[in-house]
Write the C-alpha cells for this entry.
Amino acid sequence: MFDGRFRTTFEKGIAPVGSNLRKAGVKADHLTILGVVMAATAAIAIGNGWMRVGLLLLVLTALPDVLDGAVAKASGTAGPRGAFFDSVCDRLADGLLLGGVAWYLADTDPGRIVVLPLAVLVVSSLVSYERAKADALGFDARGGLMERAERLALLAVGLLFTELLVPVLWVMLVLTTFTAGQRFVKVWRQASDERPRPERARRLSRRSPRQRASARGEGRPRPRGAARPPAS
C-alpha cells in the first residue's frame, strides 16, 4: 500500500537528506549493508527477549533502507546493480528479523506456534517474487495491502506490546497472503489482456510442433511486455 500510493511523494521529501549524505561521503551500498547488520543485531535482541532493544534496532534497521535509494539517486549511481543488491539485502533482513521472532517463540511458547513467523516469511517472499517476476515480464505488480513497510510497522507493534506479538503475526500472515493474491490477480489480468494478433496466430498455426516449441523458448516465459516501460 505504501509502495503503491505514497513512495513517490515520500522519496521527494527525503531527497535533500540523500543529497546531504552523499556530500558527507556516504554511499548507498554502505547504508544497505548497515541495514542488514542492524537487522542481524535486532534479531539477536529479539531472540533473547530484549523486546525494547529489538524495537529500537528495528527502527534503526528501517532508516538505512529508506535512505539508501535517496543517496543512490543523489549520487547518480541508481541502477540495476544497486536495485538487485538492495532487494537481496531486504530479503535477508526480513529472514533475520522473523528468524529472531521464531527463536524467541521457541523459548517462550514451545510448540507449533514457532512455525508462524516462518509462514509469514514464506508468504512475504512470495509477494516479493511476484513483483520481481512481473517486472521481468514487463508487467506491474506494485501495491497491495501488506507490503514490506506495513509488515515492519506491524512487527514493531508486536515488539512494543509483547502480549500482542502472536496475534500480530497472525494478522501479518492473513494480510500478506491477501496481498499475494492481489498481486497475482493484477498481473494475471495484465497478461490476459495481451493476446496474440490474428496474423501472428495464423503464422504460428502453420508451424510444426517443434518450430512452435522453439519459438516459445521451449516452455520458458517470454517477455511479452518488453515493449512497455519497465516497472519501478
Notes: Residues 102 and 114 are 5 Å apart (CA to CA). The first helix runs from residue 2 to 5.
